[in-house]
Design goal:
It comes from Artemisia annua. Residues 129-254 form the GST C-terminal domain. Its EC number is 2.5.1.18. By secondary structure, the chain is of the alpha+beta class. The chain has two domains: 6-119, 3-Layer(aba) Sandwich (Glutaredoxin), CATH 3.40.30.10; 130-248, Glutathione S-transferase Yfyf (Class Pi), Chain A, domain 2 (Up-down Bundle), CATH 1.20.1050. The chain has ten helices and four strands, in the order H-E-H-E-H-E-E-H-H-H-H-H-H-H. It has helices at 6-28, 54-65, 85-90, 109-119, 130-147, 153-162, 165-188, 202-218, 226-235, 239-242, and strands spanning 45-49, 70-74, 98-101, 104-107. A four-stranded mixed sheet has the order 2-1-3-4, with helices on one face. Helix 2 (54-65) links the parallel strand 1 and strand 2. Helix 5 (130-147) packs antiparallel against helix 7. The radius of gyration is 20 Å and the shape is globular.
Length: 255
Amino acid sequence: MIDNNIGKKVLDKVSKECDKLKEFELKDSSEVDDSYKCFGDSNKLQLYSYHRSSCSFRVRIAFNLKGLDYEYKAVNLLKGEQYNPEFLKINPIGFVPALVDGDVVIADSFAILMYLEEKYPQHPLLPRDLEKRAINYQAANIVSASIQPLQNLAVLNYIEEKVGPDAKLAWAQKHIGKGFAALEKLLEKHAGKYATGDDVYLADVFLAPQVHGSVQRFNLDMTQYPTLSRVHEAYMQLPAFQNALPENQPDYPSS
Ligand SMILES: N[C@@H](CCC(=O)N[C@@H](CS)C(=O)NCC(=O)O)C(=O)O
């Protein structure tokens, strides 16, 4: 009697062995490369992203810095695709970005970045120096917890509806300005070519999208923030940042 499931059983076994191999090699190697793609593209990382989303932009920069190939899955926030039942299965709160890595599903840019950092240690996002590392967390959290949530689409739509269209821009500028003033003070002491020295780290991955969006979408006057302006200019010279820009994404509108 022939077992029709034999092929599947063999594949499952090979897949498990492959996962074990990944775990083993990750402990011992600081270099992670394409050899981890055991079954070619079936294991390709997928990023649910929207071109204009600053949170997605952060993850795109990290992918580029770490040299990771990924599949871009567009979620059009202006069309409300974040509320599609299929997407809500991936991220029940209805926000991008979300990462799918085989059976692993992670939403929230900070969690995704920490996952990528541990799984793909090449081009570390966290410096070894303890103080510098803490400053990176502080700057990243000012952006992700004290600025971006206050200028998120859902919040701005609510303000527009309850208060009026004019209030929206003033609200965004006020809260971004408060956060940028704090970042400027923090980083004037720590910045080199980039936010915390002459290498790109986590703080830079959060800062670049926030500055870019603040200028493009909210017309923010950056003259009061010379350090932020200077490091932002430096980011725009780097391919990893340029390629992550909204206008270089497949879902950026053609006209
Ligand atoms: N803490 C989350 C925030 C995610 C978030 O707010 N994403 C925005 C785009 S940057 C979004 O999906 N907004 C959709 C909406 O407000 O409906 C993260 O860092 O990923």
